[in-house]
């Protein structure tokens, strides 16, 4: 059996290839989409492999074909420049076999529209975005908003922007007092017909981005313009916007649902060590990463201070403060957990051989 590659999209924001394993007759045994894009790591963009659409014909399952695809991708990671890989798993246990681990969850939030009473109602500065120029202004807001929000994809143009599709609803752009766009929101409104009127209205927020607190609060106040038309506000995902959550006030009337979401797999630990945002206080640590696929294995010493760091590759036998398998490394580098030295010892795949405090200070919860 052979692996074939077919380019299905080549845009400035993302390049998609369809990788397939074919049998002797040319039939597809296993296939997946391998997408090259940039995602946020702290304030920087890193080259990222996003994998989706993994599928195998039933008669060929349990034969190691997906492993063959992933192994080939890991071998070629340096050629493509991938520092990390992301995917939405159908099974967390399954993808852990390839070195992936959960780095963030999906946070669904729902509450009655009248519980936005803590912000002033208003529509000043808002306009419905309908033109490409307006969409491009919103894209610029997104790229400012995404800074420091881990794993968010880069949007070079409108090809990865949620506009122009009915399922994404409408977009409203907010302008500040200087006429500059500083926030936007996309949402849908769904209502039911009840005997002789429309009822049970739900405003579903698809995407919400802002550059500052004033822009965020203005958008929340704009949602109040729908009081009397809808009963509830439903946020599809607030995981990347904790400031909205702690701005809410009526928590007893708010429903939360957490759904485990994205897994990550480190492909180039040194690239992430160099891309990390370090504290001003000085510190140093030595880290070893083990990897059964050998793509991310190695040891490094990091010395940091004043927000910058020097990263040095160490010999295989060098003593290290932390030894992590590649799976455990992903949530640590992405700041998925709020850990101290005591809790670090509970993580599967992590061995503490020295003082971990400087490492924990460099990779806090994000």
Strand content: 35-45%
The helix content, as a percent range, equals 10-25%
Question: Between the first and last Cα atoms, what is the distance in angstroms?
Answer: 43 Å
What is the strand tally?
17
Give an overview in words.
It is a single chain. With 366 residues, this protein is of the alpha+beta class. The protein is globular, with a radius of gyration of 23 Å. The protein has 3 domains: 2-87, 3-Layer(aba) Sandwich (Aminopeptidase), CATH 3.40.630; 107-259, Gcn5-related N-acetyltransferase (GNAT) (Aminopeptidase, 3-Layer(aba) Sandwich), CATH 3.40.630.30; 268-362, SCP2 sterol-binding domain (Nonspecific Lipid-transfer Protein, Chain A). It has helices at residues 65-75, 77-80, 92-96, 132-145, 213-223, 242-245, 269-275, 326-333, 341-344, 357-362, and strands at 2-10, 14-22, 28-41, 44-56, 84-87, 101-112, 126-128, 170-175, 181-194, 197-210, 232-235, 255-266, 283-290, 298-305, 308-313, 322-325, 350-352.
Give the arrangement of secondary structure elements:
Layout: E1 2-10, E2 14-22, E3 28-41, E4 44-56, H1 65-75, H2 77-80, E5 84-87, H3 92-96, E6 101-112, E7 126-128, H4 132-145, E8 170-175, E9 181-194, E10 197-210, H5 213-223, E11 232-235, H6 242-245, E12 255-266, H7 269-275, E13 283-290, E14 298-305, E15 308-313, E16 322-325, H8 326-333, H9 341-344, E17 350-352, H10 357-362
Parallel strand pairs: 4-5, 10-11, 13-16
Antiparallel strand pairs: 1-2, 2-3, 3-4, 5-12, 6-11, 6-12, 7-8, 8-9, 9-10, 13-14, 14-15, 16-17
